[in-house]
Amino acid sequence: MAADAAAAPSPDTAHFIGVRHHSPACARLVARAIATLRPAYVLVEGPADMNGRLDELLLEHRLPVAVFSHYRDEARVATSWAPLCDYSPEWIALRDGRAAGAEVRFIDLPAWHPAFTARAGGAANRYADAEARYAEATARLCERFSVDSVDALWDGLFEVTEDTEDIEGLQERLDAYFDLVRGDTEADAGDRAREAYMASWVRAAVARRGGRPVLVVTGGFHRPALRTLAAEGTTDWPEVPEPPEGALGGSFLVPYSFRQLDAFGGYQSGMPSPGYYQRLWESGAEAAAGELTRAVAERLRGRGVPVSTAALVAARALAQGLALMRGHPYETRVDVLDGLAGALITDDLDRPLPWTTRGTLHAGTHPVVAEMVAACTGTAEGRLHPGTPLPPLVHDVTERLARLGLADAEDPVRLDLTDPGGLERSRVLHRLRVLGIPGFTRVSGPADGADPVFTERWEPSPSAGREAALIEAGAYGARLEEAASVLLAERARTAGTDAGPLAGLLFDAVLCGVGPLSADLLDTLADQVGQVRELGPLGEVLATALGLWRHDRVFGVARGPVLGAVVAGAVRRALWLAEGLHGSGGGVDLGRLRALTAVRDALLYAPEAVPIAREAAAEAAARIAGDPGAPQDLRGAACGLGWALGGTADPAATVRALAPDALGDWLAGLFAVAREEVGRGEGPLVDVLDDIVAAMPEDTFFAALPALRQAFAFFPPREREAVAAHLLERRGRAGSARSLLRTTADPLRLARAKALEATVTDLLTRHGLRTPRPDEHTTGPRTPRPDEHTTGPRAGR
User: Fold this and answer.
1) Exposure class string for 249-280: b at 16+ Cβ within 10 A, else e
2) For 376-430, how does the pLDDT look when each residue is reduced to its tens digit (9 = 90+)?
3) How far apart are CA 752 and CA 8, in angstroms?
4) Whole-model pTM?
5) Under a CB-based contact definition with an 8 Å cutoff, are residues 600 and 570 in contact?
6) Whole-number Å distance between alpha carbons of 492 and 525
7) Within 13 Å and on the Cβ side, how many CA atoms surround 477?
8) pLDDT tens-digit readout, 655-709
């Protein structure tokens, strides 16, 4: 954008400092500017709705802390964090500005404002660098200065320089850098709205400065625009936007940690490796390099990785050599890490070192590299001043845990869910679980509504971050049951018609027992299951809801009308989806088989909840079973469903007409849904199958064997033994059916071995290399052995 320097405010009226968030160099620049200028106002990029609570922010907290902002309405949920650490320029501006007698103000829009959602990627982090969205300019700079990443570029230009006291030179370099990053590219709509709002604060402060300058501290990307926008416009104090009517929003302080502040952990803004930059802020570049080397050595030795003194000497020498070659007066962070990697890692690495890029560590990162990154991150965790106001949820949870004897639990907590007191404690712990509050981990308990388990066991787990998590969860409600229910409702909206999360969501709602709010949630689920697009995941929802409706003896939802509505909607939708499912791809889809099994159970055991007559469902099943375009496993399951419902399905007649390559998949569907109707191997269907398999040529049998084995896996061991006994009796043979089921090796491996043996034998015979067995004739047909049947190729096998 073009900037009219003559129209911009002069340094005597408004002094603009563009910063990189969490930069020690920028923090020093801000501190020096406040001490030199003695400004009337210090204006800082940050949420303007926190201005009435700056006294709270400036209490004696242990940093890092963050301003957590939340917003919720019927269409949108937004959360944002604005973290501050000892060396954040924004924190120095607030703290030193207040100490110097200046009026300090945040001047940015509230975090809930749509301007943040207009930015690419949303606004989970207020200080997400604009330069990351204008990477082309920084990429050119990295190429010009022969560095791998913008972080290495920044260190060499600003953090580790020859004269750290040259504040004017630092200011000039920063201005040139951010002018280049911004360039002539027009900001997006969200940034334009924010910059116009921040400029209105600058104009108002300049009009009231009383002869002293105004200091403006914002992200460097915004500085060029603010200098121009602040030249013209009204000089009234801008209004702080309020959330729309019906929306809920607010801000609270939360403890933060260096782990959360690190780009390698997923943080999107500012400087990486906060532990290193804390050392740089406190001790200077030369001392920070030595301290980082020691921290890496201590971490590695603490984990049993041998690190010799000679290796550390070599690492330090290599880092110093790299710094000299790269033109750095002292070793930068990257110099130290490159030196350590060169001296300590002897393996080949399959990806670039993580500090050459931005982003989180990849799975499988070399353990020495991971420890080096962790040493750079540091372990600092913030703590709020005891006088910091907290959302009501924090007090509510604290009181509940104390009353229920869970506040300081050190031993496992065992709960009897049939006891009212045990059930209440269980519900509290489950509400904390769904809200993501650390402190307890559930290690056993009922897995679904049909699970005949009436006890739970919870293990105490590390509670680090509990206070911050509770403050953030306070965005969902003032009381624990309300917050849990609102979060579950948000999960339901996010899931939409994706049935995958709905089954777990349904059981979570029941486990939390969130009262009337749970009924609203279940109403939402009942509506959503009628729109699910996939049969398999829908079956999970139906099975969960049906289990709770039929068997619940603990949570008080059995035979409930709302769960009944979920069951009814799921059955209707499952039959509709099954009738429209086509595709000739082979294989068995266990999800859709479980879905038809759940439909069967609902029609047989919950008829009062399902407004579909068995006869109508059996007719639908018959249509699916007779549809040549439907998958074979689904056709078999539909045949089994009609059979179980008392329809006219005739599996024996159907199976005779099946091609050998379809037989296994079709049987898998049939056995999944109508295993009991097969009659434990004593009915005519098993006899028909025996005849079909016995008549198969050997190569056809080997091809069909895997699918057949999968189908019979639906029978438990005792029922498979009954089938084996029936087949022995049918052949008139004596013996143990149980031993018949036990093989010395995997049957598929045996089948492959026999097929290979037959191939080799055929090859030897064709080339005249095979010696006949003594009982074989060299001409004419071979005489059968006494133990062989002659009624078919598979007879007796």
Assistant:
1) bbbbbbbbbbbbbbbbbebebbbbbbbbbbbb
2) 999 899 999 999 998 999 999 999 999 999 988 888 999 998 898 999 999 999 9
3) 84
4) 0.71
5) no
6) 7
7) 19
8) 888 888 888 899 999 989 988 887 644 467 888 888 888 888 877 887 888 888 8
